[in-house]
Task: structure prediction
Amino acid sequence: MLLRVHALMESSTVNGPGARAVIWVQGCSLGCLGCWNPDTHDPLRGSRSDVSELLEWFAKASHENRIEGLTISGGEPMEQAPAVLELLRGLREAHPEMTTGLFSGYTERELPEALWRAMQSYLDFAVLGRYNARRPSHHPLVSSTNQLLRLYTARYSMADFAPQSVEVRIDDTGLTQITGFPVLGSPVLG
Result:
């Protein structure tokens, strides 16, 4: 199954507890006010990756970096839910010790119940609800006050989530990636 991907990051410390690999999916139709990632909206941009290739990428990233899990963000992951579900299922089978998180602009009530229940069975946490730049939040991972951080397993407690910050990574080729919470966070250079 194919997943349209905007970007990958092998290790991030601002997209969930600990160091985490991050996949940003491509495509979002929600149009949240003040979105930090507008380049992820066009569903025809980005690259198409087979879920098996992403699982191989994650295996390599987890071997080369001290990460404790994967966070999926976007774009909007739930607009590619079948492929995201396959990715989460494959990750849990291959790496049961790793944790998983997801950012979605949808609320739980907006998602098809059976699909969301299946997705939850593979998630440790999720941030849900549309981002609204007019309602800034100071809570970890939750960038506007209408969003919720939900825990689905006992692997984390709310105390495990660090304050908002921004991360800037520059690799050997000069590729620069900025992630995190640009309005309220403090920078982390890596």
